[in-house]
Write a structure and sequence with these properties.
InterPro entries: Fruct_sucro_rep (IPR012781), HTH_LacI (IPR000843), Lambda_DNA-bd_dom_sf (IPR010982), Peripla_BP/Lac1_sug-bd_dom (IPR001761), Peripla_BP_I (IPR028082)
Number of helices: 12
Helix content: 40-55%
CATH class of the largest domain: Alpha Beta
GO biological process, one term: response to fructose
CATH superfamily of the largest domain: Response regulator
Shape: elongated
Structural class: alpha/beta
Order of helices and strands: HHHHEHEHEHEEHEHEHEHEEHEE
Organism: Lelliottia wanjuensis
Protein name: Catabolite repressor/activator
Domain HTH lacI-type: 7-64
Length: 338
């Protein structure tokens, strides 16, 4: 098999009949600055395009002491919210000429430490992390070496740069509306209680009940994890205990609702009159027979603010504000009388 050979600046220079220094000036965008003849510049660029020349990222890194890569650490890339966020962030990075490296932790603190260390060893310029850790001590220490931005989760009143969605206020508004219709029964299916999204969405749930004048019953709160299988199992056990579907249900994430809907589909419950709501929205909810009200995060804005923070920190700036809480919106699909 013939061994491939990467085209270099030296190759381009020889083909164009110019010095390596001249070819380098043209390919690095400095030809006008240093008065390289327009004809020479056009010839070098045409040959570079013809031979699909790409500048070496290693040479670029050595020149400006950066890797031009950002590390993204998420618990679960198949989670719809994290998948959309990752896509939006990758688009921003690509347009800025930055490579995004993505690693998953599976909500495992030990694995999170491993993937973060791998990112650091690859000399990323900064890290954006949705952490499964309970305190920020490791990231405070790491932030002395490179910029770190937390997103989606907060921990122990961290002073690190942070971007999250306000989940308490819109959850309370949505749950209050449901509780007024079903004051005798509304269940909450959540993820791990140690995670801040679970705590915040549960706090919104409790506030919503209080705002509707409904007293919380302890049995209404059920915890598992954020995998769809957990949503399926919790809902199956709830239906078995009640002998029927609950009158109203709020799930703390899209993945949990996925499991609930799978169970409902298997047991022909999608035509039931259960009031169903969730944190996180999905475009497929518009095509279901059962109406689902949701709290919708703006993943594009989440990605933009993370990108804005990490970019400014890499440049040595102090962005304001350093911690950002974004608003969510309600997507109402249920109509009284349905």
């Amino acid at each position: 098999m013939r061994k491939t050979k990467r085209v270099t600046i030296k190759d381009i220079a020889e083909l164009a009949g110019v010095s390596k220094a001249t070819a380098s000036l043209v390919l690095n965008g400095r030809s006008k600055e240093l008065r390289v003849a327009e004809e020479t510049r056009d010839r070098v660029l045409a040959i570079a395009k013809q031979h699909h020349y790409q500048p070496s990222i290693h040479a670029r890194s050595l020149r400006d002491n950066r890797s031009h890569t950002i590390g993204l650490v998420v618990p679960e890339i198949t989670n719809y919210g994290f998948a959309v966020f990752s896509h939006e962030l990758e688009t921003l990075c690509r347009e800025a000429g930055v490579q995004l490296l993505i690693s998953c932790t599976d909500e495992n603190p030990g694995q999170e430490t491993v993937v973060v260390n791998n990112m650091v060893s690859r000399q990323v310029d900064g890290l954006i992390v949705a952490s499964s850790l309970l305190n920020d001590a490791d990231y405070q220490k790491l932030s002395e070496q490179l910029p770190v931005v937390l997103f989606d989760r907060h921990m122990n009143d961290s002073s690190l740069p942070l971007v999250i969605t306000d989940s308490i206020t819109p959850t309370a508004e949505l749950v209050a509306d449901i509780a007024r219709q079903h004051p005798d029964e509304i269940y909450f299916l959540g993820g791990q209680p140690r995670l801040s999204p679970t705590r915040d969405r549960l706090e919104g749930f409790k506030q919503g009940l209080a705002n509707a004048g409904v007293e919380l019953r302890p049995e209404w709160i059920i915890h598992g994890n954020y995998h769809p299988s957990s949503g399926y199992e919790m809902f199956a056990e709830l239906c078995a205990r009640l002998g029927r579907p609950p009158k109203a249900l709020f799930t703390a994430a899209c993945g949990l609702l996925e499991g609930v809907l799978r169970y409902m589909g298997q047991h022909h419950l999608l035509q039931s009159d259960m009031r169903l709501a969730s944190f996180d929205d999905h475009y497929l909810y518009d095509s279901l027979t059962i109406p689902i009200d949701t709290v919708r995060q703006d993943n594009r804005q989440l990605a933009w603010h993370c990108f804005d923070l990490i970019g400014k920190l890499i440049e040595g700036e102090t962005p304001e504000p350093l911690q950002r809480k974004l608003a969510a919106t309600l997507q109402k699909r249920y109509q009284a009388g349905q």
